[in-house]
Design a protein that fits this description.
Length: 132
């Protein structure tokens, strides 16, 4: 089973959030990418667009399935990982570092209270695996 870094927060949609003040870097969890299989394409929003908590900000496609990327927080996108356009496989090989997707200036820090810590997320994943 995957381990989840303690310094991140997690959504039930298998996204991670690295918080630095009011700046959040967002990516897909190791478990999320494992469930999808080999990622073949990703569509990310433009810098200067905005995202809303629990709303899609892009799409991701694997050999098995396609899915919306659901934002764990709201705010303005200040950076997008353009490297993923050249090598989307980074999401599979390095989901927590090089595989980040977007950086958001958060508009509502209270939304972080809706996210899970690494232990809560591990429990959530275990329940998800048992349900399959």
């Amino acid at each position: 089973m995957s381990t989840f870094p303690d310094d991140l927060l997690y959504s039930r949609e298998h996204m991670w959030v690295r918080v630095d003040g009011n700046i959040a870097t967002i990516g897909m969890t190791d478990y999320g990418q494992e469930q999808m299989g080999e990622i073949v394409s990703i569509k990310l929003p433009a810098v200067d667009s905005s995202v809303d908590q629990d709303e899609p900000f892009g799409t991701i496609e694997s050999a098995r399935t396609a899915a919306d990327l659901v934002s764990p927080i709201s705010g303005d996108i200040i950076n997008v990982n353009d490297d993923l356009a050249d090598d989307v496989g980074i999401i599979n090989s390095d989901p927590y570092d090089m595989g980040w997707m977007i950086v958001v200036e958060m508009s509502n820090l209270n939304e972080l209270d809706d996210l899970l810590d690494s232990y809560e997320y591990a429990d959530y994943v275990e329940e998800d695996m048992e349900a399959d």
